[in-house]
Write a structure and sequence with these properties.
The chain is mainly alpha-helical. The protein has one domain (about 1-95): Alpha-Beta Complex (Protein-Tyrosine Phosphatase, Chain A), CATH 3.90.190.10. It contains six helices and no strands. The protein starts with a helix and ends with a helix. Pfam families: Y_phosphatase3.
Length: about 100
Amino acid sequence: DRTGLVVVLVLLVLGVEREAIEADYRASEGQLWAGREERVEEARAMGLDEGFVGCEEGFVGGVMGWLEERWGGVEGYLGHCGVEREEMEGVRRVLLASS
């Protein structure tokens, strides 16, 4: 799902460990049950599979593997998309607590 993908990308930029990202992604599955049937109908109307509205097992690992294999990691991918390294650092400064 698009929102899940954006969250995964941000968490990777922040340097969050894979296991924590996967746990967070799986935990969001419970939040999706409210209104699920409506979203399934919307997805089907767009020609998408029912799995599009859930938190598919292996999604995070698949994304991370693809990013690493194709782009050398999240920074390579985001750089290709036009996100400057300084912008990624800015995200880190804003979202990470200083110690």
